[in-house]
Amino acid sequence: MKKEPRAKMTAAAKNEARWAWAFVLPTILGLIILNFYPAIDTVIQSFQKTGDFGMGNKWVGLENYKNVLGAGETWQSLLNTIKYAIIEVPFGVCIALVLAVFLNKKLKGTSAFRTIFFLPMVCAPAAVAMVWKWLYNQQFGLLNNLFKTNIAWISDPNLAWISIGVIGVWSVIGYNMVLFISGLQEIPGDYYEAAAIDGATGVKQFFKITVPLLSPTTFFIVQTRLIGALTVFDLMFMVMDKTNIALQKTQSIVYLFYDYAFTKSNKGYGAAIVMVLVAFIMVVTFIMQRAEKKLVFYN
Questions:
Q1: Domain for residue 119, yes or no?
Q2: 177: domain range?
Q3: Which of 1, 77, 151, 201 has the fewest CB atoms within 10 Å, counting from its CB?
Q4: Residues whose CB is less than 8 angstroms from the CB of residue 101 and which lie 6 or more positions away in sequence, other chains included
């Protein structure tokens, strides 16, 4: 059976295709240069050892991975990252959900409150770190002066990771809240009216209607914020000084990567740390995708 000849493109179709490529090409080049190439280069570097003065990388196979997996600081940093995620994700999601429910109602001033809660997302991370370092200062900080205490909020190894987690929760509440409000506005009001007629209280409506129908939005927020928490760096880098005695108990695994790759110029070892983190995130993501069918209710 002979194949039918392909129809030739008209001049207008060719011109439209050229414009389409012209608009798409910058994005494709950006992805290749800024995402794909660095990712591939990181994988290659994880099997190499940086030469003296950063010159002449040598292929060492799995040596970097053996050293990374055998180092106690790797597991400590990973544990610190998980502890941070345990604080940021659940509290950031729950508080944002409650705020979204209240601010989704047609009341005076809701727009102003939405803006106030979203402000942390548009603030520069450096400014946020400076403000919170002042709040946490043991001698001159607002918190200790306000409560008449002398607590080392970010210098006590047993307390610093909680203090860092509080900043993380404060930073993401506004973003999570906006997504929840968007999801709430997609829920038909008829459900609440029918539930009210049947005598369901506001609390019962929240758990029987809002939470199940909002589960796709909740799952999306939890998944994205979990990945964000596991890759946290800027917050700890700017709040925790290198001379801080609590740094070892709070530094994230990305902070450890930065220390080896850019401070100690051991890019091969740093790349191996990143690949271990990527593998861990892939496992976590796989587990969450498997749990989606049981936890998410699609209307």
A1: yes
A2: 68-295
A3: 1
A4: 180, 184, 206, 210
**pLDDT per position as a tens digit, 149-162:** 889 999 999 999 99
pTM for this prediction: 0.86
How many domains does the chain divide into?
Answer: 1
Give the DSSP letter of residue 2.
P
Give tens-digit pLDDT for 120-174. 877 877 888 888 988 998 888 889 998 888 899 999 999 999 999 999 999 899 8
User: Is the Cβ–Cβ distance between 273 and 45 less than 8 Å?
Assistant: no
* Interatomic CA distance for residues 200 and 64, integer angstroms: 60
Structure tokens at 54: 């950063």
Position 262 in a domain: yes
Confidence of residue 299 (pLDDT cuts 50, 70, 90): low
3-state helix/strand/coil string of 268-285: HHHHHHHHHHHHHHHHHH
- HSE-CB of 234 using CA atoms within 13 angstroms: 10
Q: How would you class 209 by CB atoms within 10 Å of its CB: exposed for 0-12, middle for 13-18, buried for 19 or more?
A: middle
Q: What is the mean pLDDT of the chain?
A: 87
